[in-house]
Design a protein that fits this description.
4-stranded antiparallel beta sheet, single chain, disordered C terminus, mainly beta, 28 strands
Length: about 325
């Protein structure tokens, strides 16, 4: 079986650092450039464009909002940004100073929900600029990525070795992971309600089924440092291997497949399903990669639900180039 075709599109200089990526309401790919403080836009076949923010703002995760604009976190500037498709930028500052916003996603209530890594809080930002913050039940949890599901939001807690759920009233439920020191980062929700997440320090991809059962799938390369994850229309989870220079997938039956990226040490971070049905990932070395999900071959089908790992992650190592 042949591997998928992978193409790379240069979008910035090597020092700009494309980090996260999403599809905008205009059908273009929008991405953050964490090192240069820019928001980029690419329509395949056209020249990329970008919009300058404060150079040291550290734009990190980006998502489409409910209002036809793109919303993003500014990790270093401790702000939430909004950019229209014609490039107009508005910025909002959460009430808690130095909160370190990282993950952001549109919620089912029409607001933007974001994580405050340095403040152990989940924030809610209405499109009119009103911010509400909800404290987490433990300290030092380092909430990271966040995703919407039904009537709630799911998020990873990188230093608490857990994933959390917060409902629209701010009630938080914590689910501890079977593997110790797994350091979860990326999170996504599939069409069947399954919650998928990456375990960057354990080299595993986790899945919580709708009934609450957690299964962890070890990657062929346990030092690959899986970072971001998304799901396609079939419910397959696609993820980036930041340390392994690969893009991989996991099906609901536990079939793991990985693919090498063409450029060595390209540092893949964010990943999304593009408007063309392909997978697109942001490469920190200055490009976007397009992965056509054709016929794939199985590289691993093993899983575990409780084996401890001896890999210990250091604080926020998955974001060493963003903070």
């Amino acid at each position: 079986m042949r591997p998928p075709a992978i193409e790379e599109y240069a979008v910035s200089g090597r020092d700009s650092g494309p980090y996260a990526i999403t599809v905008g309401p205009d059908g273009a790919l929008w991405f953050t450039m964490v090192h240069s403080g820019r928001i980029g836009r690419l329509v395949p076949g056209q020249e990329p464009t970008s919009h300058q923010l404060a150079p040291d703002s550290g734009p990190t995760v980006i998502c489409e909002g409910p209002d036809g604009a793109l919303w993003f976190t500014e990790y270093r500037a401790h702000r939430i940004g909004r950019i229209t498709t014609d490039g107009r930028v508005t910025e909002f500052t959460p009430p808690t100073a130095e909160c370190g916003p990282f993950g952001i996603a549109a919620g089912p209530d029409g607001a933007l929900w974001f994580t405050e890594t340095a403040a152990d809080r989940i924030g809610r930002l209405a499109v009119d600029g009103t911010v509400t913050e909800y404290p987490l039940p433990r300290t030092g949890m380092f909430p990271s990525a966040i995703a919407a599901a039904g009537d709630a939001m799911w998020f990873t807690m990188n230093q608490a070795n857990a994933i959390g759920r917060i409902d629209m009233n701010g009630r938080v439920t914590v689910h501890d992971l079977p593997t110790e020191a797994a350091a979860p980062v990326g999170i996504a929700v599939g069409p069947d309600g399954s919650v998928w997440f990456t375990e960057i320090a354990a080299g595993r991809i986790g899945r919580m089924a709708p009934g609450g059962r957690i299964t962890e799938y070890p990657l062929p390369d346990r030092s690959a440092r899986p970072h971001a994850v998304t799901t396609d229309a079939d419910g397959t989870a696609w993820f980036t291997e930041w340390g392994g220079n690969r893009v991989g997938s996991v099906t609901s039956d536990g079939t793991v497949t990985v693919h090498d990226l063409p450029t060595p040490a390209s540092e893949p971070h964010g990943i999304t399903v593009g408007p063309d049905g392909a997978l697109w990932t942001a490469l920190e070395t200055g490009a976007l990669a397009r992965v056509e999900p054709t016929t794939t071959s199985t590289t691993s089908t093993t899983s575990t639900t409780g084996t401890a790992s001896t890999t210990i992650g250091t604080k926020h190592t998955e974001q060493r180039n963003a903070s």
